[in-house]
């Protein structure tokens, strides 16, 4: 069992419109767009990052907005709910705010108050009241500190059989922390505040069909490449084959598929989003991976204009 993983690093979803995706996460949820770049494998598609002031690990929702992509189908083998932590007593205000954009539902789950909602492509989201979360919210998007998102609370994976994925999470340092209905909660004993993975078992769930509104992968945080290499070694010893470490400009990443079909990533906390932009200007310029720098003029004409992009 490794002790190198700190919790979630980021969650990456697919979308159908860069403009609608950007508006929802920056205006409705009040997150900061901390990086505007492109998909390494499809440079004609944005890769947008939304999080706290600096895009700290455990706070960052990212998206691949493929223009006019059809909506995906939720099902087994994917993350079906991404939950954010908000202060105690803020859900009534959030419910009023998000009700203007679509249906919401409030419930108590595993002893926590939460508000279920959907993003612009039907992505499953939740806001969970958490007492004493010391993470500092971004307030530049017009959402005050009294209700601002602190970062991730958890992700929920829907699986036909959760046992093998639970075993994998135990290898990654997680332990069972509760059960309610068909859901088993796995939690790190310590970490960055984004330390929960919920496993929802549904033997009859159809296989997920990934497209707009689907989570592409769930990324976990490690401090640096040395810690990542140790995690990769321990995974290999357990029979889990991960990719070599890949340079993603703002972190190094390895990828592997879970027994239930969900794509996991382990990403380094370094070098972070200030490697090529000043902290005060994060997300305001189109940043291109080196291999796509020669496409800048063409991409500037082709990519959908975004508010706040120079």
Explain this structure to me?
The protein is an alpha+beta fold and 310 residues long. It has a single domain, classed as Roll (2,3-Dihydroxybiphenyl 1,2-Dioxygenase, domain 1), CATH 3.10.180. The protein has helices at residues 18-28, 91-99, 163-171, 225-237, 296-302; strands spanning 8-15, 32-38, 46-51, 60-65, 78-87, 105-109, 112-118, 124-130, 151-159, 175-180, 183-187, 196-201, 215-222, 246-247, 251-257, 263-271. An eight-stranded mixed sheet has the order 2-3-4-1-13-16-15-14. A hairpin with an 8-residue loop joins strand 3 and strand 4 (60-65). The model has no long low-confidence stretch (mean pLDDT 97). Residues 151-269 form the VOC domain. InterPro entries: Extradiol_RC_dioxygenase, Glyas_Bleomycin-R_OHBP_Dase, Glyas_Fos-R_dOase_dom, VOC_core. This is VOC family protein. It comes from Rubellimicrobium aerolatum.
Give me a quick take on this structure.
It is built from 5 helices and 16 strands. It is of the alpha+beta class.
Give the distance, in angstroms, between the N- and C-terminal Cα atoms: 46 Å
Strand order of the largest sheet: 2-3-4-1-13-16-15-14
According to DSSP, the number of beta strands is: 16
The value of Rg in angstroms is 18 Å
Counting structural domains, the number is: 1
CATH topology: 2,3-Dihydroxybiphenyl 1,2-Dioxygenase, domain 1
Number of helices: 5
Determine the structural class based on helices, strands and strand pairing: alpha+beta
Which residue ranges are poorly predicted, with pLDDT under 50 across at least 5 consecutive positions?
none
Q: What is the CATH superfamily classification? A: 2,3-Dihydroxybiphenyl 1,2-Dioxygenase, domain 1
Q: What portion of residues belong to β-strands?
A: 25-35%
Oligomer: single chain
CATH architectural arrangement: Roll
The whole-number mean of residue pLDDT values reads 97
Largest sheet: number of strands, sense, barrel closure: 8 strands, mixed
Q: What is the CATH class name?
A: Alpha Beta
User: What overall geometry do the principal axes of the alpha carbons give?
Assistant: globular
Q: Helical residue percent?
A: 10-25%
Order of helices and strands: EHEEEEHEEEEHEEEEHEEEH
